[in-house]
Amino acid sequence: MVRAVSFDVDDTLIDYSVSIPRSLRGLFGTDADPDVWLTLMDALHPLYLDGTLSHTAYLRTRMAAMLTTLGRPVPDDAALDRMEQQRITLAETGLRLYPDVLPCLTTLRAEGMPLALLSNTDGRLQRRRLQVVGLTGLFDIIALSGEIGVAKPNPAAFEHVSASLGLTTADVVHVGDNPAADAQGALAAGNPMALLIDRTGRHPTPAGVTRIMDLREVPDLLRGVR
């Protein structure tokens, strides 16, 4: 029986389609291609997830790779850190929620469903973002890899959420946009259902995973498995 729901944050609840291009233009100028940045994220983020890169190393490597792509010199680590902080500040001015987020969360809370956040990111940074978009007070548990010391798809991340709710992983459904870290990770951890939010049809659907294109589908899906 499903007794709670956990959600990923970035590109699941928070829409970066405006903030990423804005931050790149502000930092690099008009020749910065957001698609190049997203390609670098796709290539490097798995190295952070599997522990090859620390979060700081991931950010520095991504920034250095973008500079190289643009044909610009790569500065020292301190300068890379300053550039990343500037990019973050620019990105936060354009943060917004997807339009399906609040209807979904409001319905689930009205139906008495405990809600959790499970995000692979720096704790301080993500908590500030959550506050900016008004999400902080809507969740019973906020689990951030930079604070709990473990990241998706490690089963321990999903187990941390369920234990914090006083439940087991068999009681919690996870919703996220990453096929490996979110969907397959949740199933491997013992979650009874993994919902892959794919608003643009970008990802193939892994075996055993339920793909949705709008978070407003979630309450109806869960009513059938409570």
How are the SSEs placed, and which strands pair?
Blueprint lengths: L3 E4 L6 E2 L3 H10 L5 H16 L5 H15 L7 H16 L3 E2 L3 H10 L4 E5 L3 H11 L7 E4 H4 L6 H10 L7 E5 L2 H11 L4 E4 L12 E3 L5 H6 L3
Parallel strand pairs: 1-4, 1-6, 4-5, 6-7, 7-8
Antiparallel strand pairs: 2-3
Q: What features would you describe in this structure?
A:
By secondary structure, this protein is of the alpha/beta class. The chain is 48% helix and 13% strand. It contains ten helices and eight strands. It has helices spanning 19-28, 34-49, 55-69, 77-92, 101-110, 123-133, 145-148, 155-164, 179-189, 218-223; strands spanning 4-7, 14-15, 96-97, 115-119, 141-144, 172-176, 194-197, 210-212. The strands form two sheets. It has a six-stranded parallel beta sheet with strand order 5-4-1-6-7-8, sandwiched between helices. The chain has a two-stranded antiparallel ribbon with strand order 2-3. It is globular and about 55 Å long. The N and C termini lie close together (5 Å). The mean pLDDT is 93. This is HAD family hydrolase. GO terms for molecular function: hydrolase activity. Its cofactor is Mg(2+). Keywords: Hydrolase, Magnesium.
pLDDT < 50 runs, ≥5 residues = none
Structural class by sheet pairing and helices? alpha/beta
Helix content: 40-55%
Number of helices: 10
Major sheet characteristics: 6 strands, parallel
Distance between the termini: 5 Å
Which descriptors would you attach to this protein?
alpha/beta; 48% helix; HAD_sf; hydrolase; magnesium; HAD-like_sf
